[in-house]
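name: query_chain
kind: protein
chains: 1
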Amino acid sequence: MDILSSSRGLKMSEMIALLNKVEGDEKAVGQHLSFRCMTTALALPISSVREIIEYGHLTAVPMMPSYVLGVINLRGNVVPVVDLAARFGAGSTSLGKRTCIIILELGGQGSLHLVGLVVDAVDEVLDIEPEQVEPAPAFGTAIRSDFIHGMARRDQGFLILLKADRLLDMESLAPGLEQGIALTTG
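structure:
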């Protein structure tokens, strides 16, 4: 299936359905989910993306970093939700019609963790060839360079390829969890 050509101009519900069809062998290394945050074109490897859901009710959790908005119940799983703009230090995401949560499946310490990522809008699934990727710049972006895997050349400029594991490092979220647990048990 040519995902790139079949995903252009789709509504959010159609994009979610298309993404959820991308399984098994089609989750190739070169496929990335493109989305927007802070008017910046970004992408994550499709292999890290579990699903996309509409933005909905969040339960706030005390003592968490400011970029952790709270948690959601996703089919019985407690999933922390991170505001990507706030994670980049740019303030909270302005909620709109296309605001959604990308559910990522991240490995760490021998287990998988689900984390939600609030973004302005999801655009499409792209095939990105290795020769299209330039090294991450050391400076000049609003995003910390250690969060950036590289820059993919496109007709309209560049698409920033993010490192999902570094961006949503469970250890950086854990201190807030540990403090919250210590306060409630102490």
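note: The domain at 3-185 is CATH 2.40.50.180 (OB fold (Dihydrolipoamide Acetyltransferase, E2P)).
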